[in-house]
Amino acid sequence: MTDAHVRATVSAALDGNKDGLNAAILSLHYPPETTGNAPYAGALASGLANRNYRVNAFVAQPHYPEWRVRPGYGQWRRVETIDGVKVQRMRHYVPRPPRGLRRLLSEISFGIRLVFNRSGSADVVIAVSPALFATALAAVRIRLNRRRPGLIIWVQDIYTLGLAETSEGNSVSAAITKIVERRTLRAADRVIAIHPRFKDYMVSELGIPAERITVIRNWTHLRPSLAMPKDVARTALGWPVDTLLAVHTGNMGSKQGLDNVVEAARLADEWRAPIKFVLVGDGGERAGLERLAQGINSIQFVDPLNAADYRCALAAADCLVVNEKPGVANMAVPSKLTSYFDSARPVLAATDPQGITASEIKQSGAGVVVPAGDPQALLVAALELTKDAEAAYTYGAAGRRYCRDVLSADAAMAAFDGLIKNLMRPHVARRGQTRATDVTIRAEA
Questions:
Q1: Secondary structure in 3-state letters for 114-159
Q2: What is the mean pLDDT of each run of 10 residues along the chain (445 residues)?
Q3: DSSP single-letter state for residue 372
Q4: Which end of the chain, N or C, is more open, meaning fewer C-beta atoms within 10 Å of its C-beta?
Q5: CA atoms within 13 Å, Cβ hemisphere of 299
Q6: Are 258 and 163 within one domain?
Q7: What does the alpha-carbon distance between residue 298 and residue 196 come to, in Å, rounded to a whole number?
Q8: How far apart are CA 195 and CA 214, in angstroms?
């Protein structure tokens, strides 16, 4: 094959025509899950498909944040096509409660399924972390391929920081996790960080070369819609229309530290304050939180909602709550923030004032920050925020503007597309010369 033919092959593949790139996405979480990484993994897959990539998503059966496989799922292997993406769902071990060794085994079981599953002929593999240990196993298998695909690891949480900030595990588990995280990320051709602070940490503490890390911010994954009046949204959900509502959505796990919200609701009862805290979602800590909240009238638990009802829940709120356990500062950017900002409702964050979440609230101008683990400060701020209509409007408008200007889905997809094509140019050139077409993750047809 001549150099001209190679250049033509590369150009065709990278310009997104019918002979374009094959992408495999590896993710523990995927729609119909509506919280955590799932909406972003699904949006990336469909976004690349819309840009004429051939996309295969290798994912777990839907189980989060409930930590139980949803009705209708649970097959050993299930294949379906969604929004132009071939989605292969694989059964793995789902622990309940999802703590410690059980959670580690869950990730490893998913990683084993990835190792023994064929992705077709992927040019590039995008692995989402979490799940770090599943990604580590997949990375080892990919590197063993004679003509391996490009590997991109998309970091949504930093495990090493998470163990330190949540005080989970011991020094041995922390050391092992740091080694695994460092080696896994160093095995990638490119690493995507969702925040500049993630990049700084990966460079300084994990030794990842800065030039291999690209920052691509998470975006709002809700479809554009007209603003819904608060009373209409509450009526649709059967929520009270005559009281102030402070709404928290998403996972109820350790790092959320939602006992702080329960104690704020207890204070609201004592003060006879006209406010109710609504916790929407599920997670490993929900049962304990419900026990803690017994006898408290100013709190309500709501099961996870579908996309339409979730948007109603955001519209129904007087303010939207982000709560983090004391000590949690830089391990993650709460995925709910993008949806909160897009809802045009004010955001109240109980978190480390120097952490990532606080910096996002301050940079966006979308709300106020109070210290983590201070239920009285949370309650006072919620009452002040929900009673000041002018301030609430100003914060909500700022959040939506920040979404439009900084957290754009179109900008994120363009960044992914550009990163993949720049990474794959030499890979596709070699493929054009050798006609090698079947390199990837191996296994069952």
A1: HHEECCCCCCEEEEEECCHHHHHHHHHHHHCCCCCCEEEEEECECH
A2: 44 50 96 92 96 96 94 95 96 89 95 84 94 96 86 95 81 92 97 96 96 95 74 94 95 94 98 97 94 98 92 96 94 90 96 95 97 98 92 96 91 96 72 42 35
A3: T
A4: C
A5: 25
A6: no
A7: 38
A8: 9
What single-letter DSSP state applies at residue 357?
H
Question: What pLDDT does residue 430 have?
Answer: 52
**Distance separating alpha carbons of residues 270 and 267, to the nearest angstrom:** 5
Q: 127 with 270, same domain? A: no
- CA-wise closest residue to 65 among 337, 323, 303: 303
Specify the amino acid at residue 34: T
d(CA 394, CA 346): 8
Q: Token digits for 313?
A: 């829940």
Q: Which two tokens stand for residue 56?
A: 């295969």
Residue 226 token pair? 């007209």
Q: Report how far residue 263's alpha carbon sits from residue 275's, in angstroms, rounded to the nearest whole number.
A: 13
> Considering the domain boundaries, does residue 224 fall inside one?
no
The torsion of the CA quartet 343, 349, 353, 354, rounded to 10 degrees, works out to -50
Nearest to 139 by CA among 186, 93, 179, 92: 186
88 and 150 together in one domain: yes
Question: To which residue do tokens 């009862």 refer?
Answer: 269
CA distance 62 to 74: 8
- Do 301 and 402 lie in one domain? The reply is yes
Specify whether 164 is located in the same domain as 242.
no
Domains held by the chain: number: 2
- Please tell me the distance from the alpha carbon of residue 424 to that of residue 151, in angstroms, as a whole number: 10
Could you give the CA distance from residue 39 to residue 64 in angstroms, rounded to a whole number? 12
Quote the CA–CA distance of 98 and 361 in Å, as a whole number: 29
Same domain? For 103 and 178 the reply is yes
From the list 185, 198, 192, the residue with the least C-alpha distance to 139 is 185
Domain co-membership, 357 together with 427: no
Tell me the residue range of the domain where 67 lies: 3-219+408-439
